[in-house]
């Protein structure tokens, strides 16, 4: 295990300014560390072989070492910055630390190696217990990944002016990349806008431009669904199995259910298939009464079937799901399929699915 900061005679020493001596120790575990200083890799301190440090630390790479220093320079205008800040009460060590003159301190987590959602959640909650705001900033490994739930679940956070966003740091360019205002379209696609930031002032300013209008490609969507059914994709098969008893097919979703609404990226296979599942269960027979409790039960179960995600490290799906329920009920009333009744709705007519005879 290697570190950039060591203790000597009660003082913290940065490896970049350290002399070759034999009396350095790790500020976390207080075990002996040795200065390493080569021509290709910047200076660092190394624990002895087989030493175990009590504070969590990921494996260091040249990218990680360089990136931590670059990030502190980037964030320096926000306050006093320091490397590898040890927090013994929660057994954690932040890659970087920003002690702001006002407001919460900020912990910088420059993530370059694999890490599980459980680990991110544990470290994030640890910082929050101390009133510290953690910035998870992703390295090259993650910058190459396609935008999807795996990244969003672990690392997406909400920042003023950026909405739900992901932060990346490019060591070569020494620039921050931010994928911001992340959302999901009705067909399940993930979207956002990407910009590069040269300084922290740009990060503080935010981006208030409207997102471009999105055109949905329904033929391509149906082609993907048909392919997934052919390949026996478990996620799509689960939806089809739910539709089958009512005599419906996933490729024949009624046009009356189509929507241009976008959602936070929590709806799994997409808002449209969720709407189709809910409608298929509720609009079975005219004159049927649907209670609020029944609507909620069907909507929640359908959310589960489409692979909806209830919780991420930084946010939950509860508000998004509640808004989707209200929007669907409103749309079905407006199009004449439901009528508002006491404590719920009454079915006026059934939906016609594409391909069904009148």
From TrEMBL:
Segments forming domain Competence protein CoiA nuclease-like: 60-183
Upper taxonomic lineage: Bacteria, Bacillati, Bacillota, Bacilli, Lactobacillales
Name recorded for this polypeptide: Competence protein
Organism of origin: Levilactobacillus hammesii DSM 16381
Domain Competence protein CoiA-like N-terminal: 20-56
């Amino acid at each position: 295990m290697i570190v950039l900061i060591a203790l000597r005679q009660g003082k913290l020493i940065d490896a970049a300014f350290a002399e070759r001596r034999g009396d350095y120790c790790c500020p976390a575990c207080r075990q002996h560390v040795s200065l390493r200083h080569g021509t290709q890799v910047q200076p660092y301190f190394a624990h002895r072989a087989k030493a175990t440090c009590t504070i969590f630390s990921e494996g260091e790479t040249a990218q990680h070492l360089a990136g931590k220093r670059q990030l502190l320079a980037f964030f320096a205008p926000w306050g006093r910055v320091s490397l590898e800040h040890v927090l013994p009460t929660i057994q954690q060590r932040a890659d970087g630390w920003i002690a702001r003159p006002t407001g919460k301190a900020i912990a910088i987590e420059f993530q370059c190696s694999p890490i599980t959602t459980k680990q991110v959640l544990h470290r994030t909650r640890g910082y929050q217990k101390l009133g510290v705001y953690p910035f998870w900033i992703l390295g090259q490994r993650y910058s190459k990944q396609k935008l999807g739930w795996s990244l969003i679940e672990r690392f997406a956070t909400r920042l003023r002016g950026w909405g739900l966003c992901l932060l990346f740091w490019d060591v070569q360019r020494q620039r921050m990349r931010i994928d911001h205002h992340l959302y999901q379209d009705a067909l399940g696609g993930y979207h956002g806008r990407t910009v590069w930031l040269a300084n922290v002032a740009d990060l503080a300013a935010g981006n208030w431009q409207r997102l471009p209008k999105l055109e949905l490609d329904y033929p391509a969507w149906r082609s993907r669904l048909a392919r997934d059914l052919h390949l026996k994709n478990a996620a799509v098969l689960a939806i089809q199995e739910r539709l089958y008893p009512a005599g419906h097919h996933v490729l024949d979703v009624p046009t009356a259910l189509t929507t241009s609404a976008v959602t936070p990226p929590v709806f799994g296979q997409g808002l449209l298939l969720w709407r189709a599942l809910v409608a298929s269960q509720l609009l079975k027979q005219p004159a049927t009464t649907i209670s609020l409790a029944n609507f909620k039960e069907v909507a929640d179960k359908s959310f589960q079937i489409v692979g909806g995600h209830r919780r991420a490290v930084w946010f939950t799906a509860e508000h998004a799901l509640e808004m989707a329920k209200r929007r669907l009920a409103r749309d079905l009333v407006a199009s004449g399929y439901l009528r508002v009744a006491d404590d719920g709705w009454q079915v006026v007519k059934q939906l016609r699915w594409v391909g069904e005879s009148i």
